[in-house]
């Protein structure tokens, strides 16, 4: 399978050489240890005879041998693999019942078989909804019984002094080895199957939590790691199924993440080289594997970022942002023996040095661990190696705890948010400077953990924890000062807590970046920069006090000129994300984009970026990302780029001559962003400027063979303002339209889609819609592309068709009937209507455009065409609108009501009574009258979206004569529904979503004015047999526009009788 490698390594991050060798050894070759009766408690339930169990063992051994020999072939989805999977599941199901759970040999064999089958994905389990035998549940029951049958005399709790490293007995080693095998097999079984565990869950979770919280000893680190793996796989992809246990799991993970070994300064200095040598092996192992920490799925998490390739043109990192709660997070500290003085905390770096930690004043946040008495058993020459091994084991446990935390974060990200303070701690003193985080947390792991892979993992897990947190962090607000004795006094609101969280996260990341050694820890630095990228991409700075963006930028900007390609590219990624954050733009404009002190014209950062895009010897990935950063600046700061345009013009010309297409693409993307922001900037682009860039950069791109270049050229052209386009020479206008229409028939779908977008923009230009020939050419082009096999092309083409109908409406509204009559022939009308009806039945992304096109076309349709097509295309169009008003997405319903309003705005549109019309011979009322008004009333009564109701009211307010509303019964029903809707609006306040209430006042006014219009059209309520409540009457009068109300008052003095007002 595609994800087989990733999943295998996700399940099992094995660090112990002993455990790895145990996986590959044959059952018979393993150390026998003691006899079972000496340390295994008897468990009843053997269901097979001795001969039956022997036969079952032989069958399992055969399956194991077959799995090892034909692993590659069996992993494929073939008939042989399916038969093998079925046979293996039958054997395992029988073994769960028949194999003895108190026999060491049986337990070892089952662990080996289960691990091999599930780790290699040779067992294809049926769907979770299947009523077949639950093999996962059965295996969990069996292994929990086996695990509990071990250690009846308390060998696992023997010598529970924390941190001890005394030698263990052969009994304990054998017990622990078997328990590791059991947990490793369970980890393989539970991967993506946690939701299948039901009856065995309580026993299983108690075993795992108990093992993870057992006394910390070096010889038990592998057992803790396997238990953490099982926890991660148990909650992976289970959502909130086991959320009631998450609090306990968080506490366990916290103890495994933060209760680590700290050493004296001198010891750390002597150990640093040993740690680095040992960690390189684990780092190489992790680089060749996949893990759930990977932000890109199949690519491994700890892979160095030296390649620096671009896929979609955006940074491929998980969205990241963070928060903290104000308060003290207490940690369980190691208790030092009375005879041993406490050892101060020290923070080591991989550069071979260590510095004493400046511990926070609160002792609850201090973590101390003394060297245990057992350390004296080692000679001075052995101390360094022993402590280095202990550091490695602690690091592996922390790594697996991070994996488990990540699995929970992905399963229930929102439920984890209240528990962020457990892993992202704050101090009692608010962060005011770039001080190192001493409190144990993910930030402290990221900044000072002695194992590089753990630091890298902490960065990535932090990003995963903060996934989808942008909305949560948008509440961030700072009101109180961050200094002074009363800075955190009183009860803080949630927004203030989130604001404090946001500030501390910036402080933590900036502190870690300032203390990192880029010459030694390049991989860690890259991951830390990516973590910072996620922070600035997701945080909101509108209500935060200034300084955060500059703080984190200053801590990372030094890597912009690094000699390492990966560091440069990662720094540019970070800068692009920062400059793309809309809420940070005011501060950025005054800081990093302000002119440098030694240059009064060019901002310092901008000058550096221009040097990168201009440099001939600059690596291609760096030039590309520099252009992307400039694109972010151009998107928000048009004036900054505009003042330096001559230099960018030269750089663009140089870039277009580059051999690498990535540089040319990035340059065109920058040009598009600049043109887009220029079209809406306060200082509009002039025709001369557009003429220059069209001739120098854009038009010549159409001669390229690459369709992506043509698509980018079309995107750039589509941002030309209508006034600027009208000011171009006739030669340029004709050339542009010829190139765009030619690109619309390109073989590449991307180029066709971009051309459709450009046509959709041009078709609304006043100077172009007056050209009947050009209108027909553009219309035929986009109408044909509405049947394109590519969905993106159809979406863009249908959008252009909707704009085409709007363009025709503008011609009619501006009194250009002669142009409309010349352009809108019967053949073109028929083609537009048929295409729009087809689009209404297409993908949901297209429907709204088709509905919009129908409404606009019906508004401008001539009476002769309406009479000719009223039994065919007109009828189909009307009922298409009715269908979309009654069902479908909210966007579709809104557009359908708007389209019906457009249709009713055509005075020739047939609806209501047929008296005095050419339709009188057929019936007294147009056939679709009741259906049209019924659909509009249904939208007013039942739609939960207030904007849909507003459009339905607007449509009902269009007809100006009583005859348009049909017979008396229908009209009376319309008035009654509107009266009820006004009165029920107050009763529905608690039945609608919060976002709808911003439109409530607009809806109320629309309902009242629509009712006012109908009452005026009717000539009085007495003719309808209805009574108007005095309060409602006053609300109707109050809703009238000021001018209309003044006229009524001056003539009728606001008479009390509603009939006297003729309403």
Automatic annotation (TrEMBL):
Residue ranges with Basic residues bias: 1-15
Pfam families: DUF4042
Record gene name: HEATR6
Top-level lineage group: Eukaryota
The DUF4042 domain, residue ranges: 396-587
PANTHER family to which the protein is assigned, alphabetical: HEAT REPEAT-CONTAINING PROTEIN 6, MALARIA ANTIGEN-RELATED
The name this protein goes by in its record: HEAT repeat-containing protein 6
Listed SUPFAM superfamilies: ARM repeat
Organism of provenance: Linnemannia gamsii
Database matches in Gene3D superfamilies: Leucine-rich Repeat Variant (1.25.10.10)
Region of interest: Disordered: 1-35
